[in-house]
Amino acid sequence: MNDNKECPLCGGSAYFQSDYQRDLAFYICPVCGRFEHKILGNERNRFSRNKVASYVFYNRFLASSFPSEYRYHTFRTKEECDKYNKAFDKGNNVKGRPVHMDNDLIDAWYPKTFSERIDYIIKYLGTHIEHIGQQIAFSYPEMLSLLFIDRKELIETYTKREWIQRDKDTCKSEAKYIGFIGRFKHYSV
Question: Which of 2, 9, 56, 106 is most buried, by the most CB atoms less than 10 A from its CB?
């Protein structure tokens, strides 16, 4: 891996390796897991960064998984992913096992109502704690992904589309509204 860099999805710290010839970067993020992302271009603007951040958090492939995890999320086409997965099955594990994701898939998965959000959150907590009432610690980026809180706001003008970072106090207010601040052991800001 090249270095630490800000994760383009959650804003946390992630390791990355760039491939400038293909305009791609491979990230290993403790919040988002393993994924591939465009370095330049408009791919980032086609997808809701907020939805993608929660999607990869809930469905992440962690580098620390045992046995070794070869899967990673990517915006590559399904056909490209199938091609790399067939090569992997034949012993060529250089490119790993890409898992296709696209806007339609993410939109279909993403909760549509407040009650669906709460169901996802409770199910997630239920699979990550051993005992009811046990406290659990999340970092600030994890908390935002877990609670489906928008990190960024899309500002569109006639000349450009730009994602602007939302104020942390506003994000914390949303988390408080959902009712989970204070129930966690701690979260770092």
Answer: 9
Is 189 among the domain residues? no
DSSP assignment string, the chain: --EEEE-TTT-SEEEEEEETTTTEEEEEETTTEEEEEESSSSHHHHS-HHHHHHHHHHT---TT-SS---EEEE-S-HHHHHHHHHHHHTT--TT-EEEE--HHHHHHHS--SHHHHHHHHHHHHHHH-SSTT------HHHHHHHTT---EEEEE-SS-EEEEEPPHHHHHHHHHHHT-TTTSS----
CB contact set of 21 (below 8 Å; sequence gap of 6+): none
In angstroms, rounded to a whole number, what is the distance separating the alpha carbons of residues 89 and 127? 30
pLDDT at 32: 92
Query: 98: cis peptide before it, omega within 30°?
Result: no
Low-confidence ranges of the chain (pLDDT < 50): 1, 42-45, 182, 184-189
pLDDT of residue 106: 93
Number of other CB atoms surrounding residue 151 within 10 Å? 21
Is 184 contained in some domain? no
Query: Residue 96: inside a domain, yes or no?
Result: yes
* Domain containing residue 137: 3-178
